[in-house]
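Contributing new records

If you add data, match the layout below exactly. Sequence lines come first and carry their own label; structure lines follow with theirs. Keep one chain per record. Anything else will be rejected by the validation script.
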Amino acid sequence: MNRSTKRILTAALTVLVTFAGASLAHSAGPATQQAAGMASPHGTDGALAADFGALDRNTAWQLTGKLKLNFPTFHTEGIAFAGDRVFLSAVQIIEPTVKYPQPQGGFDRTPGKGIGHLFVMDRAGHLEKDIVLGEGDMYHPGGIDFDGKNVWVPVAQYRPNSSAIIYRVDASSLQVHKQFEVKDHFGGVVLDKATGHLVGNTWGSRRFAEWNLAGTQLSTWANPNYFVDYQDCQYVPEGKMICGGVTNLPQTPVAGGTAATYELGGLALMDLTSHAVEREVPFQQWSTAGHVATRNPLKISASGDTLTMYAAPDNGDEGNGTEILTYQATVSPTTS
């Protein structure tokens, strides 16, 4: 069976499985999806890398749904989909960090105070459980990912060059396991299924590290990208990773100069063996509160030649509160 035939069969099966939920929600537009909830991100991992490789700056993304979350979500960080459950990480700030005039003890700011949350929801956005994660100054959950059984969550200090805990949460039982601690702020983590190792990114995603499951660091490398800072990533077979992120850039003098920044969003596909960025594209669609959609939590799935992206860029106290936005795009990947 050639690749084209496989893709057609995959798309047909996906339509049959999701017709009752996904078809209704997406064909009727955002208002219906608000009531119906999020469709399950069905698709094939194999198609995801190929479809993502067909993205470019002119890809037409369409907003097909909004799902408002009706519980306190604070500052959202990462999202993951596990069967009928949706996991959303967030940080609740109790005392903001404050920059020091000069670095103290290797830190550029105070630790602040906060509470780390991992919200567990059903597909309609109803809160099932609020899992509190973190210890002491480590209260900032970051980007998360689901490996088929567990959700991996880093919880770090809210400052660079600090420390973090890597948690493993069973997506079925919701049992929490503290996997290991690491030195430095790690704001995102995925499990590389090709190696069985974890890969994390530091503050601003300026550096990556790879560990075994016992927490032994196996390698580290500098991020070759200076386009955006990655916020939330996901594993893609074989041995790849998709990340989304944002950076704030200054405006022109007539628009306010450096005091008036704008958010540049983007998506990237990285090879976890060569560490090369294989594809990188901007993403410039905005949320209700005016944030670029790739600002923090996001995940992407592929079905046939359709990519679906779920994002939750707005905080609970902004705009219309946190909404899970659904975007779709049709691409034309190169077949071999």
